[in-house]
Every structure is written in structure tokens, then in C-alpha cells.
Amino acid sequence: MAIRVLPSQIIEMLASRRHRLRHFLWHAVRSAWNNPQLTDEVKAFIRDKGWDPPNDRVPLDAKIKLILDNHSGEDFLYMHRQMIKEVSELLDQLEEQSLTFWRSIPKPGGHPDFALPPAWSYDDPSESAATNAAMTARLQRVKSDAYFRDTIVTWEAFYTNPANLAQLSLGALGNLLEMTIHNNLHMRWASVPIGYMPSPNFDDTRDIDPKWDATSYDYLGDTNSSHVNPIFWYLHGWVDSCIDRWAAANRVSEIACIGTWTGKLEEGWTHGAPEALTASVRREAMGGHAHGHAGHEQDGEDIREMEAIVRKLGSCKVIRNFYDVLRDPK
Ligand SMILES: [Cu+2]
Fold first, then answer.
1. Looking at residue 249, what DSSP letter applies?
2. What tens digit of pLDDT does each residue of 267-305 get?
3. How many whole angstroms from its chain centre is CA 111?
4. 304 CA to middle of ligand 1, Å?
5. CA 79 vs CA 17, 72, 84, 115: distances in Å
6. Hey, what long-range contacts does 114-119 have (CB within 8 A, 24 or more apart)?
7. Fewer Cβ close by (within 10 Å): the C or N end of the chain?
8. 288 vs 262, residue with greater confidence
9. What is the rounded distance in angstroms from the CA atom of residue 317 to the CA atom of residue 311?
10. Average pLDDT, stretch 118-147?
11. How much distance in Å is there from the Cα of 285 to the middle of ligand 1?
12. Residue 129 Cα, ligand 1 centroid: separation in angstroms?
């Protein structure tokens, strides 16, 4: 069995500028929201455009410390569950085999489909030689067998143990998962990208060049591209299964999430329905499934608004790439 490559219509939907921007911005707004460098003016702009996280609910405080009691980890789990639901529905419509997930994190030397892409050397001209060397060493470590044995196995055992899950709120679990095992799994399975998309934090690259919309840009280390990569769905399937393990451990039959933020809901979108992520992209990619919403998303206004927000975040230099160490603050 080879690794599951999604049908081209779905890949195109995921690689579309609209879907990329929605995933990128959702992560970017969340991680930047309490950053002291984000100005009130830019925050007001984001609120005005409808892209502010409800109740300012985000995972990190102003000191970049993880907040465990505000339900923002539910947003993380819920939003990615919606992404899985949407792709699953599209596969169903196409009468294609459904997504398969990692039931456990693949071991080194295990299934050949999940053999690790090799580490590479960073050579970022905007960073010092020492920083490049440190980033390279960190990537090698995340991809090592020892990292699996010493770190991933420990995390996986912790997060799948019902006794631990019974002591965590779902929000705490979501934020912990995101910032520990999830981010590192992204980098462990990342292949060297076709190039590094310049951060909108840089003065000369506030706008994301359309060349990064190519389906070949599927770098697992960037929220603008990770979901185009087939591994994303295996990995997030494992993350998603943590919700059900948590529910079982806590004897919860129906999960009532407070954190259900998936980004701005465009006109005609129903909260909780998977089209809340990509209704218009779905229509473009799938053809013939138009529901005739007169929402302004069809003329690309939503894309221009998202681009404007990216520019504003970039002007405050608060876009943080948190899968990859590249361009981390300091
Ligand atoms: Cu994501």
C-alpha cells in the first residue's frame, strides 16, 4: 500500500489561495493575538474584518506562555476536525476511498510509506551562520531515532493514557498537543521545501507571491502549505483521535465545545458545517455543486481581505512560524 495521495480536485482545493490563506491566517491570528507588538490599530482592523478570535480566546499569552484554561485548545481540535470532515465529504462525493489515519505514530524503520524524509541544512541569508547551524541541528534531532524513542514515545504514551486524559480539560489537551507532539511531528515528517516562502514580516514580502499557490508547495513546516501534503491528514487523524480518547476517558458522550472558531464565517456559511471552511473553493474545485450563495466570497473579496490582514500582521512583524524554527522571534 502506497501513501494516500488525494484526488487532484481535492489537492487543488487545498492548494487554492483561499484555502491556504484561511489555514495560514487562522494560525497566524491565534499566535499573534496577544503579542505586544501587535498594535491596537491592527487588532481593530482584524476585528472589523471579522477575523478576531471570539472572546480573544487564543493559546498564548503576551509572554508566549501557553494558556490551558480558556478553551482555545478546543478551537485547535475543532477547526482541524472540520478540515478532516470537509475532505471526507469531498472524498465521499467523488466516491473515493476515505481518509486513513495514523493509529499510532509510525516507528523508525516501520512502515515504508512513512519513512522519514532526510533532514536538510538551513541556509537562510537573513539569519546568522550560528542560527542556521542551530536550526539544522534541531531538525536533525527531531528526525532522529533517539527523538522518537525518548520524546515521541513518551508524549504518545502520556496523551493516550486514560488516567492522564481524565485529568485534563479538552482545551488543555488541545493546546498541549498542538505545541508539543503536533508541531514536532510536522517537522519530523517534513521534506525539504521547494523553497522558503518569505515571511510577510519582511518589509519587501508583505504580499504572498502567487507562485506559492502551486500544488508542489506542500511544505509541512508552513501553515500556508502543510495541509496540501498527504502526511498532514495521517498526522491530524492521529491528533483528532485524541478527542475521542479524551471523551471516552471522561465518559463524555456528546462533546460540547466552547472553542469552535474556524476563522471568519462568510455570508451564507453555517457554523459547524464543514463548508464553513471552504464553501466557495469547493464550488470552484468540484463544479456543479453550487448552492447559489450570493456571498461576496465568490468575487474574491474574502481573499483580498485575508491578504490585507496578512499585510497588517506582517507590518507588526508578528507572524510566527511555529512548526518550523525558521524565523522564530529571536
Ligand atoms: Cu493547522
1. H
2. 777 777 766 555 555 666 555 444 444 444 457 889 999
3. 25
4. 21
5. 18, 11, 9, 28
6. 114/3, 114/189, 114/231, 114/234, 116/143, 116/188, 116/189, 117/189, 117/190, 117/191, 117/192, 118/143, 118/192, 119/143
7. C
8. 262
9. 9
10. 92
11. 21
12. 30
List the grid coordinates of 226.
502543510
For residue 78, report the distance from its CA to the centre of ligand 1, in Å.
11
Residues 212-231: tens digit of each pLDDT: 999 999 999 999 999 999 99
ipTM over 0.90: yes
d(CA 214, CA 165): 40
Check if the beta carbon of residue 121 is closer than 8 Å to that of residue 129.
no
The three cell numbers of residue 111 are: 512502515
| CB half-sphere exposure, 209, CA atoms < 13 A | 11
Q: What Cα–Cα distance (Å) separates residue 152 from each residue in 114, 146, 268, 294, 315?
A: 15, 9, 42, 47, 36
Backbone angles phi, psi at 129, to 5 degrees: -60, -40
> Virtual CA dihedral for 21, 24, 30, 35, nearest 10 degrees?
-100
DSSP category for residue 65: P
Q: What separation in Å is there between the alpha carbon of 149 and the centre of ligand 1?
A: 25
Q: Give the tens place of pLDDT for each residue, 79-128.
A: 999 999 999 988 998 899 999 999 999 999 999 999 999 999 998 888 88
The C-alpha atoms of residue 27 and residue 324 are separated, in whole angstroms, by 13
Cβ–Cβ < 8 Å for 39, 316: yes
301 C-alpha to center of ligand 1: Å? 23
Going from the Cα of 23 to the center of ligand 1, the distance in angstroms, rounded, reads: 6
Amino acid 323: pLDDT: 67
